[in-house]
Amino acid sequence: MRLEAIGLNHRTSSIDVRDRAALTPEKVNLALHDLILSENIEGALILSTCNRSEFYLSPYHHHSEEDLRCILQKYTGVTEEEACDAYILRDEKTVSHLFRVSAGIDSQMLGEVQILAQVKNAYYTAHDEGTSNSVLNKAFLRAIEVGKNVRSNTEISRGAVSVASASVKIAERIFGELSNRRVLLVGAGQTARLAAKHLATGGVDRWRVCNRTLANAEVVADLLGGEVASYPPSVDELAWADLIVTATAAIEPVLTVENMRTAKKKRKGIQLLLDLAVPRDSEPGIGDLPDTYQYTVDDFQDLVKANLKARENEAERAENIIEGHVSEFAEWYQENRVAPTIKQLQETLEELRILEVKQYAKRFHDTDQEQVVLFSKSLIRKVTSLMIANLKRASLEENDLSMAKAVARAVSLNPNGDLTDVLKRLDDELSH
Q: I need a surface site. Which of 83, 196, 226, 301 has the fewest CB within 10 A?
């Protein structure tokens, strides 16, 4: 199988490393187009979220582990030592991992639903940029189906804790009642909106919203019945808020220790900062200020453990569903390896059928010529169906492509053109 992946996630790497490994949409597009220029890469797709940076490749020949780590270093900026912590997956293990990711099984918050949308976005980005290929297309479209299937047939996502929903639990631990608390929302993307939705449900009704794009801040502020604040937030805005929630795509911190220290001088009481972004929106050390609590996505471990314990049985059911889909994908891939030969076989026999019908049909009465055409089509269909069945059987059961190569040579009408391409692809498959 011509699939491989390399990546870092919340299990392998600290938030400091994930900060550097995170790719903006612009960097993803640049990396995809650069990767596809490689002579050994037919398809490339990148999945970058707050908890993972993963490169999915469809190569002509598998890269060495060293080459894959070099790819990770080149496009993410992690060090050589940090790249050694990355997981490297090939073939069916790549598919299994992708399906588990899409189903929320590999998430920090087991069963969280946001990852499915992120997998979709990653697929459509690569597809629209023209860097995906048929194998990656099939794998990701199937992964999206698996994600939906698992959520429909298990309770894995019922009441699941996401980073956004966990913000309410943290806030309630610190403040208790939330209805009289003032919240500054920094960011207007999906994570920020989800966090705001959960906090509003928890009783928050005093909002200020700021975002790099003013129009987006206005939309969210209107939805929340709040006000628009300046971006980046001023010291006065910071001092106003009891709770600050940040979830931007900024590369550098939006909140500094110095600004927060100045803001603290203008207010009294406890202040909570929930930084839901990777890279982080806030500088480390803000939590060391008096009466200030700072949480990042890696500080939710107790909630993660409780979430995992409540869903262990559902996770096992989900794994069984995923295993079945992985087997189906592997079978599709094995059959697909001989697809070029089958196509060539069908096209060649159809050309020969047409030539022979043209030559002999005129010997029959007009009323019989239609029967000649029908007979010729029936004969070719029966011959090709038998050959196709044997080609697929050899590929599936014996991992043998020699029959496909022999058929490709036997039926080629253009030895210097299509045959060369077909045989090269079969040889590539045999090398895996």
A: 301
Give how far the C-alpha of residue 21 lies from the chain's centroid of Cα atoms, to the nearest Å. Answer: 15
Matching residue, tokens 């309630």: 172
Contact 237, 208 (CB under 8 A): yes
- Is residue 5 within 8 A of residue 41, CB to CB? The reply is no
3 state SS of 335: helix
Length of the chain: 432
SS3 117: helix
| 389 φ, ψ (degrees, to nearest 5) | -60, -40
Query: What count of other Cβ atoms lies within 10 Å of the Cβ of residue 137?
Result: 16
Query: H or E stretch including 395?
Result: helix 366-397
pLDDT at residue 424, rounded to an integer: 60
How far CA 77 is from CA of 27, 50, 109, in Å, comes to: 12, 16, 26
Task: Kindly state the tokens that stand for 170.
Answer: 């943290």
Catalytic annotation, residues: 50
DSSP secondary structure of 273-294 = EEE--SS-SB-TTGGGSTTEEE
Distances in whole angstroms, Cα of residue 139 to Cα of each of 235, 329, 332, 334, 395: 48, 8, 10, 13, 20
d(CA 385, CA 405): 17
Tokens representing residue 376 in the block: 């010729």
Angle at 270 between CA 210 and CA 196, to 5 degrees: 35
Cβ(2)–Cβ(42) below 8 Å: yes
- 184 and 260 Cβ atoms separated by less than 8 Å: no
> Which pLDDT value is given to residue 66?
97
Burial class (CB in 10 A: 0-12, 13-18, 19+), 302: exposed
Report the side by side order of strands in the sheet with 243-246. 227-228, 206-210, 182-186, 243-246, 271-275, 292-296
Name the residue type at position 292.
T
Residues of the chain where predicted confidence (pLDDT) is lower than 70: 159-161, 304, 307, 338, 391, 394-432
The pTM assigned to this predicted structure is 0.76
